[in-house]
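Section 3.1 - Work completed
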Amino acid sequence: MTLLRGLLAALFATASSTHTFGQAPAAPSAPAAAPASATATAPVLAPGPALTPGPALKPGPALAPVPFKNASFEQPVVQKRTVDTQGGNPSSIEESDWGHFIRRKGEGEGALNIGTTNEIARTGKQSIYLDFAEITGKRFTAALMTRLVPVKAKQVYKVGMWGRMDKERPLTLDQRRPYLRMEFEFYQQDEETQVGDTDHRVMQIPGSLKRTLFTSTKWNQAYGIARAPEGAALMKVSYLFNR
């Protein structure tokens, strides 16, 4: 039986709590590493520039900015590492474009804890974290989802999340590795009719033997690129963490 432990911090942040869609993402500054907790945890995932359209495959007009509220998880304000059920859920406030931040216990021993922390941040003062605590079972999951945000049909969008590991208890390549699945769903203006198929990208955490995605020494970006199909007016992005 193998044991998964580690802490991952994620930051979808810019210097303020509002980020905008644009042709080029902002470049935030690097934060200090998060301290270790009393129990073994996994790397902390910190979101990077949130929902910023990437370069179009063909030249076209620039997009008008579309604000994304609470992109950097600055609300609710926390004074320490705070779990989602005790005030650390960025989707729990009205002024937020995060729709859900949830977790589900799997089969077997251990826990996947999630929440918000002020211990580490790439920009701003806060990030979210995922704590893989002594997991020996399977099917432990957590999900971070946006609400529906406006997009333009046929435009290419780059959606990125910045993350780094806890240097005291990083996930390593010789452990059972969790994975991150990014999903892009597009809808018509009625908010109910889905347009096209769900697009997705899957990445291992902290990475593969050939390429490390997240490390404990610096923030790296995990991102996906998707084109809004004909007839699309809204997009929802989901980050699904599975072990």
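Second construct:
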Amino acid sequence: MKTFISFLILCLIATCNAELRTWTAVNGKEVEAEFVSIEKGIVKLKLKSGKVFEVPFDKLSELDQEFLKAKPSSASLADNIVGKLMTFEMEDNEFQIQFNGNGIMLSGAIGNLEDLGLTYKIKDNEVLVFNEEERDGGISFSSSSPKVGDQVEWGPEEEKMKAKITKIESEIRSSIKELKNNTGEIIKVKYLTKSDEITMVGCDKKASGNLLIPEKIDGKPVTSIANNAFQYCDNLLSVLIPDSVINIGNYSFTGCGSLKNITIGNGVTKIGMSAFSNCPSLTSIKIPNNVISIGPTMFSGCVRLENVIIGKGVKNIGYGAFYTRSLETVTFLGDAPDVGEKPFDGATTIYRKPDAKGWSDTWGGRPVKLISDKPVAETKPELEGVDDKAIVGKWERQGIIFIFNEDGTGEISSNGRTIDTGTWSIKDGKIHTVNSGEFGPRGRVVIYSLSAEGHLQPPSGGSVFKKIK
């Protein structure tokens, strides 16, 4: 009793900014504080300084007791955060945490929650975080009923950092959906449900054939494809993205080695960084009119990509978006968009409509011509068939040595140093080389032709490899 009264006297000088109330002890002493919670007969009050203190319910005046009895009972911290997705801001960076009902804590960047093996327990107004059953810091909330704008303390006890709650939402639920490809084989995809929307987040890496992403799952629209969702699904041949999808995330289809066709729905407005990079089988693609933004390096490493059509709505294109030497033409159906540095790596020609605005004679360092000037594609001279013996040996181009061995292995060297290794084979009268991943991107495919003169012709044209041994 004396301890509490002494504490109230010390606090009489404190004033609060919001939701303040004058609280009176049974001896008549008063203090201004904000009500936090009442649990098991203990009342928690918060001063202007942010300090939270506790007082037994029966040590307050009758008037205060009547006030608390009329107030709805305060739920515990667990009642208010379990099953919620919370967004925090710390030093101008935002991140998300979801407290699942099974004790698992998901965390990650905005829109990219991951299970990092973290679990949690709740003690009073603190979340105790564990990594492989070892304590790994915690999150201290200022009350059992956290709200947007509240400050929290984050991290290990000895070096807590402050963060602010910026959003509290319903939890995102993870589920598996079985789809069928064009041959009837099952493709398992992982998706998240948030409110009334679906985000595709993963795919069985063994998935093959043609994949049709559904427009709806369980009656809810599929609106987004998350970062890395279909990354390295090497056996997919084609993907159809429905009109319901609005956003395609970073690296969402990167490294899909067999992907030949991608149909992008008309609802897509944003395509992220490197979304289709290192897809060596892709030869052409059309970006629909509603797309506004194309991320950096989107087609980098697409070594067979020859033609791209860009819809009229595109306003921004990131750096290195078309950085592949095989690209022959990019046709724009609208005005000239803003573009980042080094968008091209080859001898690409830009074609545009005559009434489009903002164009000059060059764009991104490449020549710009009218669509009406686009030539009819010519067939390059090639031999009807290619014999293995005609390929085995050393080939040279501008100091680069290409070696084809009899056992189907090969390497590229420069100045006596190996810069690439892999395998080679002959298919349909052409030479297919596949990178091993030791010196460059794994699985990168480059297809060469043998010209009528007996030279190796790269897919992007230009100078040829001549046999030297």
